[in-house]
Amino acid sequence: MKQIEKQVIGLVCLVLVAIGCNRDEQHVSPTGDNEAVTTATLVLTNKAVPTEIVTATIENLNATVDFTRATLNLRANTTYRGEITLLNKSIMPTLDATEEIRDLANEHLFVYTPTPASLLTITPMDKDTNPAPGPYPIGLTIEIKTGTVGTGKLNVVLRHQPGSKNGTPTPGTSDLDTDFPVVVK
Amino acid sequence: MRKYGTLGVISWLLISTITAGWAQSGTCTAILKGRIVGQDSQEPLLGSTAYIHELKAGAVMDTSGYFRLTNLCPGKYTVDYQFVGYKTVTLPVVVTRDTLITVPDIQLVPDNQMLQEVVVTEHRSEAQQLLQTQSSISGAALDQTRGQSLGESLKTITGLYSIQTGPTISKPVIHGLYSNRIIILNNGIRQEDQQWGTEHAPQVDQFLASRLTVIKGAASIRYGSDAIGGVILVEPKEMPARSGIQGEVNLVGATNGRMGVASGMIEGAFAKKLTGLSWRLQGTLKRSGYIKTPNYFLDNTSYHETNYSGDIHYQYKNVGIEAFYSQFDTKIGLFTGAQVGSLSDLYAAISRPEPLSQPGFSYALDRPYQAVKHDLLKIRAYYHTAQGGVVTATFARQQNTRQEYDYLSFSGLANPELSLKLVTHTADLVWEHRDLKTPGGGQWSGSAGFNGITQKNIRQYLFLIPNFRSYGAGLFAIERYAKGRVTLEAGLRYDYRWLRAYFLNEVTSQPYNTTHNWQNANGSLGAAYQLRPDLTLTANLSTAWRAPNVADLYSNGLHQSAVAYEIGNPTLKPEQAYNSNAVLAYSGHRLSGEVGFYNNLINNYIYLKPDSVPIIRQRGAFPAYTYTQVRATFRGIDATLNYKITPQLTLTTKNSLLFAYNQTERNYLVFIPPNRSDNSLRYDLSQGGKLSDVYISASGLYVARQNRAPAVTTRQGDGQVIFTGDFAPPPPAYFLLGAEAGFTVQVGAHPLSVILSGTNLANTAYRDYLNRFRYFADEPGRSIILKLRLPISVGKQS
Fold first, then answer.
1. Rounded distance, CA B250 to CA B749, Å?
2. Is A90 exposed, middle or buried (0-12, 13-18, 19+ CB in 10 A)?
């Protein structure tokens, strides 16, 4: 009889613990967004002077955006070779979205729009492997030609166009839409 | 449809009494016709008899399922309804000059040890005794909605609407209120399935229900706080009382979506030593592919549903215990055309007359989708005494796991974007005292009880709502006094709520928490008065409250599917509702119906107010919304009328009008159902040959344009056009044509019920204001639906 009593008490305790004392809601998981782009970096190399490298980074894109290191300080009438890097630091380990986009190049397109339009001239330097009427540009590697002295901004949009990429920005949805401030001296 | 505190039989008696006024001497040609069913099985009791005392004449219920007493003279008679093994029911009947009098189904109670079961059965439908405005669907009307989701099937009731997220997600709306302002009682248990989300449909298997009852208006006294909009009761069939095994098979097929549903139920009860033990197993499988609008398929609008439940019940003398377990498992595809990364994508999608991607038909189901599983375990015990009444104790555990998978662009990760696990424990103790008769001929009835609830929520991946723990306790009492033509009801309730939310400081990685608690007392008063035997006026005054939920308080994030950045407000106060309604119900000879008026005033009504400053995130600028409180009013009229043009031909009109207003900001509220009118003409064919219950009907649904919506305004913000109020004006009014035909045919010993119906027969292209995907695509086009229901019995019944 004692044995049974003990078992019953044990069972009741177990049930109470299971219901009331399980505190796993107090262990908070950090916020992680698979598709976040937290960091966008443009690295521009002066074609004429390869040692002259301009780097601009926009941080914290998925929260309150940090533009403190985002300004592109460029020389007038100069041609730069540019590369964009996107990182997702919201998940562990940090995801290099650039690599993923390169792998899925047939459904992605970077669109670069300077304001004012005369500030910069941008030409994508890479092509995807879409069948005819493709291939189409990707925009991971670009060439930037600066005009005369001025200030403005460079808008960068990453379009996701699964099964619908046609070389224009129209199809699909945006994964990134941000602006780098530009100063041409 | 409408039930009052009085039982259906009694109201029928009253109706019969007035018809006596028309009884005059005449020829003796009247026919009295009706069905006698077992209250346990709800099946006709073949061989049961109806016997008229005065005439010493009787009739046997034959295989057609009806008894017929012919050549009756006008007058008052007393009829005995009898069947072996059941208690005899004696009811008066008034025969008029009418040629055919059909009495409502006579319910016979099994006359054996199972009597207690029946007492408990009455106890379970206590909801029907409440004086609150309510409507229900059961029997043939419920069969007509089989295969639809809960939200869709309730739309046949006036004052009910649904908020949709594409064709696959539908949430019920009562008198303009939804989500947490409605309680769904699934098999007596308060359903807790993250119902705050507009795109979170209730996880309830519609095939579990033998009756869906909707209490319109504040009904929190009996069912708990939060129910300021109303309560939906999903009530399963009674457990079988007679020994033997029986079941039911339901099959539904629809052309649109090429949907197929199979649902089966098998149940049984034991005899001899195991008398009092009964069981039931039930399951439903549902598959649907891409839904087609009149002009194109909707990409990825497939869904799967797999549900099962088991119930075991044991009754010994005046004590009983029941264990019930159910699982609802669904995977719902979301229309890809509604997936937008940014506000400019949204504008581009809105400006397109048709979606860009228009694939052919498929059953494929890819991202974006929701995978939701809801488990419910319920244990109920009751004790019944002749002196003390009934005491019922119920314990339940629910676990809701919701995983939402978004459209992936580059990450290629297999994780969901959102994962929420909500575990709810509820404990209820209810005492329903026995009816007390007063010397003056009055009767007191009522109940009192305790409700306890605790919840925990665990999130992962994206932040939408925090982890939390909550406790709630409530005490209530309701008393009802009925005397003569008057029934009065009064209720009181006290609630306490405690909520602690857990967060993580992303910078320091230190956890922290915040705690809220609230308490509130509410009351209700109701009265029903029988103005004439065929005319009843019911009026109610009730108050109700709702504590802000975690989404109201702590939301903080980009709601991608809503293209909105939603910001919670931790300083919100509870909502307080003052609800008044009046219903006039008439049940005359050829005309019957009811007209209900309601006025719901809600102080501190919580809603998402558009902010003036957009939020900038990686995908661009998003309009921001903050939870704000205003004084809101919801006023409306529900009117249903049935008119028998001939004994076979019936015209039904159902009209729902709603006027909602934000009194604080002197503006309209967003997402308020537009006025609607549903009219149908039904012809019941005379019974002939092997077919019975043959009918055909045609219906027309008119939904007006919602002209009482906040104006769509635009302004410049961060180089983008920002809309406030809404993204697009409400769509135009629409009219939908439907038709239905049904009959019952005897297949061996079993009656097979067949219903063939067609929806949107004119294949009208339209959009509905309450569909959150109305910016992107049309509503479904024509669909032809076949519904079969076959009750089966295995072995012989004792």
1. 17
2. buried
Tell the CATH superfamily of the B8-110 domain: Carboxypeptidase-like, regulatory domain (2.60.40.1120)
At B6 the pLDDT is: 36
Contact B341 A174 (CB under 8 A): yes
Two tokens at B486? 């008057």
Pairing of strands B691-703, B620-622: unpaired
- Tell me, yes or no, if B503 comes closer than 8 A to chain A by beta carbon: yes
How close B421 gets to chain A, by Cα (Å)? 10
> Into which CATH architecture does domain A39-184 fall?
Sandwich (2.60)
* Class of B235-272+291-794 in CATH: mainly beta
The predicted pLDDT at position A4 comes to 63
Q: Which residues of A touch B511 (CB under 8 A)?
A: 26-28
**C-alpha span between B505 and B508 (Å, rounded):** 6
Reported for B41-46, long-range contacts at CB under 8 A and 24+ positions apart, including other chains, are: B41/B240, B41/B241, B41/B242, B41/B246, B42/B210, B42/B237, B42/B238, B43/B791, B45/B83, B45/B86, B45/B108
Residues from A in contact with B at Cβ < 8 Å: 19-20, 22, 24-38, 61-63, 65, 88, 91, 95, 97, 100-101, 103-104, 108, 158, 160, 163-164, 170-171, 173-178
Structure tokens at B636: 């409306």
Is the pLDDT score of A36 beyond 70? yes
Residue B254 CA to its chain's centroid (Å): 22
Do A176 and B406 lie within an 8 Å CB cutoff? Answer: no
pLDDT for the residue B126: 59
What pLDDT sits at residue B57? Answer: 73
Query: Going edge to edge, which strands form the sheet with A72-74?
Result: A72-74, A173-184, A150-160, A108-115
Q: Chain A residues with CB inside 8 Å of B357's CB?
A: 163-164
Instruction: Compute how many other C-beta atoms are within 10 angstroms of the C-beta atom of residue B796.
Output: 8
Q: Is B409 within 8 Å of A95 when comparing Cβ atoms?
A: no
Chains A, B: CB contacts under 8 A, how many?
120
Test mutation, B409, B457, B615, chain A, max A CBs within 10 A: B409
Q: Do B463 and A31 touch (CB under 8 A)?
A: yes
Give tens-digit pLDDT for B373-405. 999 999 999 998 888 889 999 999 999 999 999
Coil, helix or strand at residue A20: helix
pLDDT of residue B107: 83
Domain ranges of chain B: 8-110, 235-272+291-794
- pLDDT band with cut points at 50, 70 and 90 for residue A101: very high
Complex ipTM: 0.81
Q: Alpha-carbon distance B480 to B477, whole Å?
A: 10
Which tokens belong to A153? 């901004």
Tokens found for residue B489:
């009801």
Give the E-state strand segments of A4-130 in sequence order: 39-46, 53-59, 66-69, 72-74, 79-88, 95-96, 108-115, 120-124
Q: Do B411 and A100 touch (CB under 8 A)?
A: yes
A185: pLDDT strictly greater than 60? yes
Element (H, E) at B101: strand B100-102
Cis peptide before B674 (omega within 30 of 0): no
Contact A29 B504 (CB under 8 A): yes
Q: What pLDDT digit, counting tens, does each position of A52-86 carry? A: 999 999 999 888 889 999 999 999 999 999 999 99
Residues of chain B predicted below pLDDT 50: 1-26, 112-125, 797-798
Shortest Cα distance, chain B CAs vs residue A79, angstroms: 28
Whole-Å CA distances, B596 to B140, B635, B784 = 24, 11, 33
Look at residue B94 in the predicted model and tell me its pLDDT: 79
